[in-house]
Amino acid sequence: MAITWMHRTPRWVVVLVCFVAAGLLFVGTVAHVSDLIRHSLRPYAWAPGWLNLYWTSLAFLDPLAAVLLLRGRRTGIDLACAIMATDLAANWYATHDIQGSTLSAQPGLQRLAAFTLLVLATAPFTRRHLGP
What we know:
- There is one protein chain.
- This protein is an all-alpha fold.
- The longest helix has 29 residues.
- The chain is globular and about 45 Å long.
- 21% of the residues are buried.
């Protein structure tokens, strides 16, 4: 019974979620590409190399997930979930462990957390309506 209502998610809701998520992933793309253009492959001198590599990879992964979402592919929502979960973890680590800051002091991290919550919370409803 609990699962059947997921199948009845209106198509317009799925389309809206995919467009919003794709749009916000493109915003992330612009941020990561801008950082690459301005600062090369190590845009955050204060961050360890692996973290810079991860954030640099998002310049390619974010638009890939966005395009897949706009094409109505399940792999788009799967990739978006993976990106958002790992990006939130990476940013939380950078904010808390490296910079010694908190969530309440970082509006960018708050927005990232909200977007991650949106993607992860809507994925089960949208995924069922997307193609392979």
